[in-house]
Automatic annotation (TrEMBL):
InterPro entries: GntR_C, TF_FadR/GntR_C, Tscrpt_reg_HTH_GntR, WH-like_DNA-bd_sf, WH_DNA-bd_sf. The keyword DNA-binding applies. SMART domains: FCD (SM00895), HTH_GNTR (SM00345). PANTHER family: TRANSCRIPTIONAL REGULATOR, GNTR FAMILY, UXU OPERON TRANSCRIPTIONAL REGULATOR. PROSITE patterns: HTH_GNTR. This is FadR/GntR family transcriptional regulator. It comes from Streptomyces osmaniensis. Keywords: DNA-binding, Transcription, Transcription regulation.
Length: 225
């Protein structure tokens, strides 16, 4: 999927498909790129998330931008989502370190153990959002949980995007483990630092996806086998 995405994205950014153009049909792209329809559809969804295309039911996929600016996850752009997460989740982690209950810690530890064992990306993404909700719950302020609930769909979409294109799962598990360990220790400073580091890594991975280094493999021919 990553190879198909890189090929299509490069074709758009080079102007082979200009803004307003309709991409070839799924059947034609599958034949040309020699990939299955599920793989192609994943790549097309990623193009839409990046803001390069829009899919119109019954009409096809159309190019709407020539370069990637700011991916969109559900109702929110990546930049808006990250800005809010920094202002909410970092202090929330600090409050959680000071206010967490034994039940909160048990729930987080159990959830983290499941995430570290999980190999299915879809299941892991669902638990990823539950993890951030659980940290908000540990802060013992229902407003924090409500805020995370509001952006839950966007968090899930972003998580799936980062895992599919950035291989974030194992790294994220380590970052989550550091957050939980800080909560267990009851260290407000360590908890806020661990959450800030987690969000820094999210931002770095997003940036690497949106502005990848140019390589010859994406400028000549189709995607590599």
């Amino acid at each position: 999927m990553e190879a198909v995405l890189a090929y299509l994205r490069d074709a758009i950014e080079r102007g082979e498909y200009a803004v307003g153009d309709k991409l070839p049909s799924e059947a034609e792209l599958c034949r040309t790129l020699e990939v299955s329809r599920p793989v192609l559809r994943e790549a097309l969804r990623a193009l839409q998330t990046m803001g390069l295309t829009v899919s119109k039911t019954g009409k096809g996929t159309f190019v709407v931008a020539g370069t990637v600016e700011d991916p969109t996850f559900g109702d929110y752009s990546a930049s808006d989502l990250l800005e809010v997460r920094r202002h909410v989740e970092i202090p929330v982690a600090g409050y959680a370190a000071l206010r967490r209950t034994p039940e909160n810690l048990d729930h987080l530890a159990h959830l983290l153990d499941r995430m570290e064992r999980e190999t299915d990306t879809t299941a892991w993404v669902a638990m990823d959002t539950l993890f951030h909700l659980a940290v908000a719950e540990a802060a013992q302020n229902p407003v924090f949980r409500r805020v995370i609930e509001e952006i839950r769909d966007a968090l899930a979409r972003q998580s799936a995007f980062l895992n599919e294109l950035g291989g974030r799962r194992e790294q994220s598990n380590r970052e989550h483990r550091a957050i939980v360990e800080a909560l267990i220790d009851g260290s407000e400073l360590d908890a806020t630092d661990a959450m800030a580091h987690h969000l820094d890594r999210v931002e770095t991975t997003l940036t690497d996806i949106v502005r990848p280094p140019r390589t010859d493999s994406t400028t000549e021919g189709g995607p590599e086998a």
